[in-house]
Specification:
- The protein is mainly beta and 80 residues long.
- 8% of the residues lie in helices and 51% in strands.
- The chain has a single domain (5-69), classed as Roll (SH3 type barrels), CATH 2.30.30.100.
- The protein has one helix at 5-10; strands spanning 16-21, 26-34, 40-48, 53-61, 66-70, 77-79.
- The longest helix is centred in the first third of the chain and has 6 residues, at 5-10.
- The protein is globular.
């Protein structure tokens, strides 16, 4: 039986993750937590676009905007 997406993400809390958003932006930061709606809290986040990279600090991302999540150390992935 496949694991629930929230369970997979809970395994990578406190690790650096890279998110791809619907608008093609890429956000990288340390995953601090998530809720039942897959809203995510990242710390020390950076936003990357083809034109620039900027430091955002702590951010809350609505789960419905996340297309994919890459966690190099944890191996978890989520696709919308």
């Amino acid at each position: 039986m496949p694991e629930a997406p929230t369970y997979l993400l809970e395994r990578v809390v406190q690790q650096r993750v890279t998110l791809l958003l619907k608008d093609s932006r890429q956000i990288t930061g340390k995953l601090l937590g998530l809720d039942e709606h897959m809203n995510l809290v990242l710390d020390d986040a950076e936003e990357s676009t083809p034109e620039l990279t900027r430091h955002l600090g702590r951010v809350v991302l609505r789960g419905s905007n996340v297309v994919s999540l890459h966690a190099p150390q944890g191996g978890a992935a989520k696709s919308a």
